[in-house]
Amino acid sequence: MAFTQIDYETHGPIRVIRFNRPDKRNCIGPTTHLELVEAWTRFRDDQSALVAIITGAGDKAFCTGGDLEAGFDLVPSTADEIAAHDRGERPGILGPSRWTDIYKPVIAAVNGAAYAGGLEWACFADMRIAEEHASFGVTCRRWNIGLADGGSQRLPRIVGLGRAMELILTGKVISASEALTIGLANEVVPKGRSLERAMELAKFLCALPQPAMCADKEAAIRGYGQPLAEGLRIEAECFNRSIHQPETREGLRRFLERDHPDRRSDAPTKTPGLIRD
Q1: What is the pLDDT of residues 120-152, one digit of tens each?
Q2: pLDDT bucket at 56, cuts 50 / 70 / 90
Q3: What number of CA atoms fall less than 13 Å from residue 142's CA on the CB side?
Q4: How confident is the model at residue 245, as a pLDDT?
Q5: In the sheet that 14-19 helps form, which strands lie side by side, from edge to edge?
Q6: What is the reported pLDDT for 88?
Q7: How far apart are CA 220 and CA 237, in angstroms?
Q8: Sign, Cα dihedral of 98, 185, 117, 7
Q9: Three-state SS for 175?
Q10: Domain coordinates of the chain in residue numbers?
């Protein structure tokens, strides 16, 4: 598929998936939906792709949700389509937003407005780097359009039910600084720097051993909301799958020989927040 409304960029093991409709504030229409499904399929299935970054073209919007000019073209309309959507057999309204099995790290570089479905795509990521002029809101509230791309489920998991309900029910728009305060944003950076900062973080993640990190993400995603005993069972399953990988033996060797990457003069990355005497 040739992309016309998104960009799919390869930077070594990092993939940048960019909403590219700046004249439409990067909103998602039927074509964008199909291109997003293709892009995320490529990332999920490509073993050489380790980290994905989501961002938007231009400096005004990350993504402002569904293209309302498309009317009902984005939503299931027949009885069969609605039944399939109810059963979870459709990827999402605005791309594959309902997928829950991408266990590689995903970072959102929020370079402007993240509204409605755009907020939902920001919540699809594991971490959100927001530019200082970015804003967030369930602005579809005023048009009687509900959340259908994970916002009612992911947002409460990120910021807690009380804060999420405030945003979901009122449709209020919050600034990047408030998003940081409530835990929606992980970091706020100057205008124009979110992608650069996300790339720095992605490079660090790529430099880490992958099996345990991806297994831990899987355990966290699958175990969230489960009874503790079931969550621990899932954790054990993921741990036992990763611990016997060759990367573990190499990690033990480096630990025993004090071959710590932070001690190398040529280390490409340093452990964030590491404190040494």
Answers
A1: 999 999 999 999 999 999 999 999 999 999 999
A2: very high
A3: 6
A4: 87
A5: 6-11, 14-19, 51-56, 106-110, 127-131, 187-189
A6: 86
A7: 12
A8: negative
A9: strand
A10: 6-205, 209-263
What mean pLDDT, rounded, does the chain reach? 93
Q: Which amino acid is at 147?
A: L
Rounded to whole angstroms, the Cα distance separating 206 from 22 reads 30
Length of the chain as a residue count: 277
Whether pLDDT at 24 is above 90? yes
The pair of three-digit structure tokens given for residue 84, joined into one six-digit string: 């399939």
Burial class (CB in 10 A: 0-12, 13-18, 19+), 95: buried
Q: What are residue 113's DSSP bridge partners? A: 61, 135
49 in the Ramachandran plot: left (φ > 0), alpha (ψ -120 to 50) or beta?
Answer: beta
Q: What is the CATH number of domain 6-205?
A: 3.90.226.10
Structure tokens at 99: 């997928």
Name the one residue in this structure whose structure tokens are 């079931």: 230
Q: Is the pTM higher than 0.85?
A: yes
Tokens encoding 161: 């039910």
Cα–Cα separations (whole angstroms), residue 244 to 42, 48, 158, 238, 250: 27, 21, 32, 11, 11
**Residue whose pair of structure tokens reads 């979901």 in the numeric block:** 168
Q: DSSP strand E in the chain: where?
A: 6-11, 14-19, 51-56, 61-63, 106-110, 113-115, 127-131, 135-137, 173-175, 187-189
What is the reported pLDDT for 272? 67
